[in-house]
Amino acid sequence: MAEADGVSASFVRLFWVALLALVLAAAAVFHGVLTHQFLQYDDDTYVLQNPLIYPLTPETIGKMFVRTYFRSYTPLAHLSHAIDFDVWGTDPFGHHLTSYLLHLLNAALVFVLTAAVVLVLRTRPGEGHERPLRFLSENLTPAVVLGALFASAFFSLHPLRVESVAWVSDRKDLLMTFFALLSFLSYLLYRVSYGTKPAIRWYLASVVAALCAMFAKSVASMIPVLYLLSDLLLFDFPRSRDVWRRVLVEKIPLFAGSALVGAGSLLAISAILPHPQLMERTVLEEVLTPFYTWAFYAAKTVLPLGLTPPYSLPGTVMHLLGLLAFVIAADLVAIAAWRGVRIPLFVWGFYTLFLLPTILGRGTAGIQPWADRYSYLPAVAVAALAGGFVAWVWERLQGVRNVAAGVLLLVTAGLAVLTCRQVPTWKDTVSLFTSAVEQNPRSIMANTYLGNALTTAGRPDEGIVFLERALAINDRYYGAYEYMGLAYQMKGDQGKAAEFFQKAVLLDTNFVEAYSNLGNSLYALGEYDRAIQQYREALRRDPDFSDACHNLGVATYARGDTASALAIFRKAAEINPNSPDTYASMGIIYSGWGMEDSAAIQFRRAADLGHAKAKEWLRSRRQW
Question: What CATH architecture does domain 428-508 belong to?
Answer without folding.
Answer: Alpha Horseshoe (1.25)
